[in-house]
Write a structure and sequence with these properties.
Layout (H helix, E strand, L loop, with lengths): L4 E6 L2 E6 L10 H15 L5 E6 L19 H21 L4 E5 L2 E3 L1 H8 L2 E5 L3 E3 L10 H7 L5 H10 L3 E2 H7 L4 E3 L4 H12 L4 H14 L4 H16 L5
Parallel strand pairs: 2-3, 3-4, 4-6, 5-7, 6-9
Antiparallel strand pairs: 1-2, 7-8
Helix pairs in contact: 1-2, 2-3, 3-4, 8-9
Length: 240
């Protein structure tokens, strides 16, 4: 693993840092794979929360365009370039712990998608969000797949077709982020949240994460049954 993706552990919190500030935290496919591996490692630990954040002025401006596709056909392109990106989103969703994005500066393309994929996103008031792929006539369907569960169709269509950069306040309005705080208070907001999350019992955290993962895709009767099963499991747990 390179120094671009850094992992650390403090108490019950696993932190993954994107650290390529000299390149605006643009990520190559190899680095996306490293990010996924770091998330999977944290997910397999006994951490109660996973934090994804970045070093430098930007969160992540997307995939590095200089990292060529290098694939001879559509199938190879999907395997070598596209599926690793989807795997990163899937790792965030599959982690049993809540995954928290701490976003400042530009979060474009892959950066916006990672923000959306996370269970909670704390954004600095200076954060900016954009899906710029259509500037090059590329449909941003991979990033869109991560945003669909969180934002409305009209809001997502606006991001894609209008090619406008959204402010943190606008991102909050459409459900892309959970809360917006002054940039100087970003760390304090994170610590306040972690102080709550890490004092909760692991079975309860896992139950809520699982419920959020499936709830919006279930019909009401099935959802009611699932909610009862989830609560019964936690109530019968020794750790709660």
């Amino acid at each position: 693993m390179t120094n671009v993706i850094r992992s650390s552990r403090e108490g019950a919190v696993a932190t993954v840092v994107i650290d390529r500030p000299e390149e605006k935290n643009l990520l190559t496919i190899a680095q996306v794979r490293e990010l996924t591996a770091a998330i999977n490692t944290a997910a397999a630990s006994d951490a109660k929360a996973i934090v994804i954040r970045a070093n430098g002025p930007d969160f992540c401006r997307g995939r590095d365009p200089r990292d060529g596709a290098g694939a001879p056909n559509a199938l190879a392109l999907r395997t070598t370039t596209l599926e690793p990106i989807l795997a990163a989103y899937a790792a965030i969703e599959a982690a049993p712990q809540p995954v928290i994005a701490v976003v400042h500066g530009a979060a474009h393309g892959f950066g916006s998608a990672v923000t959306s994929a996370c269970d909670i996103a704390i954004a600095a008031d200076t954060a900016r969000f954009k899906l710029p792929e259509m500037e090059h006539n590329l449909p941003p369907t991979l990033a869109m797949s991560a945003l669909v569960p969180k934002v409305s169709r009209k809001a997502l269509g606006w991001m894609v077709f209008a090619l406008e950069e959204l402010s943190a306040a606008q991102a909050l309005q459409i459900g892309l982020v959970s809360t917006v705080v002054p940039e100087a208070e970003l760390d304090a907001a994170l610590q306040k949240l972690l102080a709550t999350v890490t004092t909760r019992a692991a079975p309860s955290l896992v139950a809520v994460k699982d419920f959020l993962r499936v709830a919006y895709h279930m019909e009401p009767r099935g959802l009611a049954d699932y909610s009862a099963s989830a609560l019964a499991t936690v109530l019968s747990s020794r750790e709660r």
